[in-house]
Amino acid sequence: MEQLLNDFSPGLFIVQTILFLLLIFLMVKFAWKPILNSLNDREEGIKSALDAAENAKKEMENLNADNERLLKEARIEREALLKEAREMKDKIISDATNEAQEKAGKMIEQAQAAIETEKKAAMAELKSHVAGLSIEIAEKVVREELSNKDKQLKLVEDMLGETTLN
Amino acid sequence: MKIANKPIKSYLLIVLALTAFFGYASDPVKSQDGGIVDTEQEVKDYILHHLKDSHDFHLFSYTSDGERKHVGFPLPVIVWGENGLTTFMSSEFHHDDSGHVIVEKNDSRFVKIHSKIYELEEGATTVNFDDHHHPTNAYKVLDFSITKSVFGILIIGLLMLLWFSRLAKQYKNKSIPTGFGRVLEPLVVYVRDEIARPNIGDKHYRRFTGYLLTVFFFIWIMNLVGLMPFGFNVTGQLAVTAALAVLTLIIYTFSAKKDYWQHVLWMPGVPIFVKPVLAVIELAGHFLIKPFSLLVRLFANISAGHIVVMSLIAIMFTLKNELGTVGATGLSLVLSFFITLIEVLVAFLQAYIFTMLSALFIGMAVEEHDHH
């Protein structure tokens, strides 16, 4: 212990204290401060870059999800459109068919009606023609018949009977 | 150019590491006779002498014509004595360490005894010693000399400034350093993230990181340099470790929060009659035990390392008679090689522990107890 105390040099203690304080001051000013600041800046830079990358990844994921959703929606819309179109087509076709059928029916009816009237007219004409012919024939016959009085009377009677029957 | 440089640098490092090891060995081996270290007592004295600070930078010694020659360079002596500040070069002592050579400067007479400078009392022309070889008519002066340790502190301080300010400059152009900066950066980050931040806490660590970084690199580099040949035994100087410990003490004393002082002086949550006892213990812990543990741990570890390495090298001649020259040298080489490797680890470990404990003490002082 005495040896240690004897070896202790107060001068060296003072010199070391002064030099070391100076060293601390200079090191802090010229080395540690700039070094630690740059290290901090760099670490912060790395951190923010990582955060940005993470954000970009998240955004990308969102974007992808959006895309997927849009695609899905578009597909659904397309299907709906197609379905609608198909329905419209069917409707148009069926409408057209119905209309055509209706028209055709009407035309047929008209034709039938026309045929009926024509038939009636023809019948009427035929009747009148036949009547005319009959009258002519009857005239001729009557002329012949009426030359005889009895026969005339008989004929009138016959004819009257016939007419009532008709 | 750069590529060619790198292998050369690593070779230099290996050579340096090898000479570090042989450097220790070479000093005592050179002795043959006349002033020479080859007996057990001489080895002991040599080791103790080596652990001390010295006023000149001694590189090596050799003997020619029976005379011991020392090669090195002198360092300036700056002392504050009876007649104020006196400066002269240490070469004026002519390597005398026993008080025989008297330097007369500024009306004062100075002698050097066991690496300490004494000023003779008025009128005295020779130093008188008592039974314990303490001078009776001379007293120690306040010694501000650029001793070997101070020289080392200056060199390492400049080196640190150079390295780290260059690293700092590199960040101005790009965010990733190149070259040697790439080695230093992880160390800085290590001290910040493994020592400062966890012990002091995220809120306050920034303020103390500068001090902790400086202490860590200073101690570590000093410890490593101490292992090299011609190295400085700076961290093995009690005055140096004491100065570092006192700085830590000052920092954690002045940054301590109210909470901390309350815990020291009037511990909450204990019976009232225990409080004064605890206060005494806590105060002793604060002002004595903590700094003392710092300064003694570093000093003792580094000194012990030096003593062990040098003692193992000394096996070369202390066991020469028992094992033969080859056996003693071989044993000494193997043992001191492995101890030197361990010392490299200890160099880092002690720097880490000193910084770690400083951070811990500061952390305790600035901690805020939310739960009370």
UniProtKB/TrEMBL annotation, chain A:
<keyword id="KW-0812">Transmembrane</keyword>
<protein>
    <recommendedName>
        <fullName>ATP synthase subunit b</fullName>
    </recommendedName>
</protein>
<keyword id="KW-0406">Ion transport</keyword>
<keyword id="KW-0066">ATP synthesis</keyword>
<keyword id="KW-0375">Hydrogen ion transport</keyword>
<feature type="transmembrane region" description="Helical">
    <location>
        <begin position="12"/>
        <end position="32"/>
    </location>
</feature>
<keyword id="KW-0472">Membrane</keyword>
<dbReference type="InterPro" id="IPR050059">
    <property type="entry name" value="ATP_synthase_B_chain"/>
</dbReference>
<comment type="subunit">
    <text>F-type ATPases have 2 components, F(1) - the catalytic core - and F(0) - the membrane proton channel. F(1) has five subunits: alpha(3), beta(3), gamma(1), delta(1), epsilon(1). F(0) has four main subunits: a(1), b(2) and c(10-14). The alpha and beta chains form an alternating ring which encloses part of the gamma chain. F(1) is attached to F(0) by a central stalk formed by the gamma and epsilon chains, while a peripheral stalk is formed by the delta and b chains.</text>
</comment>
<feature type="coiled-coil region">
    <location>
        <begin position="36"/>
        <end position="91"/>
    </location>
</feature>
<dbReference type="Pfam" id="PF00430">
    <property type="entry name" value="ATP-synt_B"/>
</dbReference>
<dbReference type="InterPro" id="IPR028987">
    <property type="entry name" value="ATP_synth_B-like_membr_sf"/>
</dbReference>
<keyword id="KW-0175">Coiled coil</keyword>
<comment type="function">
    <text>Component of the F(0) channel, it forms part of the peripheral stalk, linking F(1) to F(0). The b'-subunit is a diverged and duplicated form of b found in plants and photosynthetic bacteria.</text>
</comment>
<keyword id="KW-0813">Transport</keyword>
<keyword id="KW-1003">Cell membrane</keyword>
<keyword id="KW-1133">Transmembrane helix</keyword>
<comment type="similarity">
    <text>Belongs to the ATPase B chain family.</text>
</comment>
<dbReference type="InterPro" id="IPR002146">
    <property type="entry name" value="ATP_synth_b/b'su_bac/chlpt"/>
</dbReference>
<keyword id="KW-0138">CF(0)</keyword>
<dbReference type="InterPro" id="IPR005864">
    <property type="entry name" value="ATP_synth_F0_bsu_bac"/>
</dbReference>
<comment type="function">
    <text>F(1)F(0) ATP synthase produces ATP from ADP in the presence of a proton or sodium gradient. F-type ATPases consist of two structural domains, F(1) containing the extramembraneous catalytic core and F(0) containing the membrane proton channel, linked together by a central stalk and a peripheral stalk. During catalysis, ATP synthesis in the catalytic domain of F(1) is coupled via a rotary mechanism of the central stalk subunits to proton translocation.</text>
</comment>
<comment type="subunit">
    <text>F-type ATPases have 2 components, F(1) - the catalytic core - and F(0) - the membrane proton channel. F(1) has five subunits: alpha(3), beta(3), gamma(1), delta(1), epsilon(1). F(0) has three main subunits: a(1), b(2) and c(10-14). The alpha and beta chains form an alternating ring which encloses part of the gamma chain. F(1) is attached to F(0) by a central stalk formed by the gamma and epsilon chains, while a peripheral stalk is formed by the delta and b chains.</text>
</comment>
